[in-house]
Amino acid sequence: MEILLQNFDLLIFLILIVLGYSAGTWAEKRHYRSINKREKELIKLAVVTAEGNFPPGRVADSTLVSGSVVVSIDYFKRLLAILRNIFGGRVKSYESLVDRARREAILRMKESAKKQGASMIINMRLETATIGRSANKKKSVGSVEAIAYGTAIVMNK
Amino acid sequence: MIMTNVNTVPGKKIVEHFGIVQGSTVRAKHFGRDFMAGLKNLVGGELKGYTELLQDSRQEAMKRMEEQARQMGANAVVNIRFATSSVAQGAAELFAYGTAVRVE
To answer: Is B3 within 8 Å of A75 when comparing Cβ atoms?
Structure first.
C-alpha cells in the first residue's frame, strides 16, 4: 500500500492507460460497426470524384453538401504512437483514426444529400486538418478533423 | 444562391464571371467545451463540441462568401473550396473561396 502511495503518479498513469485502452477499443469497435451498417444503407447513392457532364434538361437542382467530424485518439494509442516514433514504421493506431474520420465525414455528407433527395454526388473532395490544443504542437496529433464536400445532383424524373 | 464545387452549375449555362469571392472566420471554443474535449481526449472518440463548432463556423464563412457574391450581382458560386488552419492555440480559421458567376 505504501509503495502505491509513493508511486501515485505511476498509478494514475496506469489507470489512464487501462481506461484509454478499454474505452478506446470499445468505442472504436462500436464506431466501425455503425459505419459499416450505414455504408451499406447508403450504397445506392453514388459518390464520384469526377466532374460529371450532364445533358441540358436532366439536372433539376444542384447544391453543395458537406459533412465533417472531429475524432480524437485515446491515451493508450497515443502512447503506442510515441513508442512507434522511436523505431519508425506503420503507425496503425493513427491509420484507423484517420480512416474512421474520413468514412464518417463521407457518410454525413451522403446523409445530408439524401435528405435533399439527391441521386448522386459529383466532384467530392476530402480534406483533413488538425485542430484543438495539440494543433500547434506539431509533434502530437491528438485529434483530427475530416471534411468531405461535393455537389449533390437532383435529377429530373 | 446556387453553390457548387464543380466548374459549372450542372444543367445551366454561365453567362458572366465576376471573379473570386471568399469568406473566412476565426473561432475559438469556450472553456467548458475545451475542458470536455480534453477529457474526451483520454478515451478517444468523436469530439462533438468541436464538430459542431467547425460546422457552425464553416457555415458562417460560406455566408460571408455568399454575401460578397451577392454584392457583386452574382446568383451562383462555383468551384468552392474549403481550407482549415489553426492560427493560435485553440482557435481555428475556416476559409471558403470560390468563383462568383451569373447563370441564366
So the answer is: no
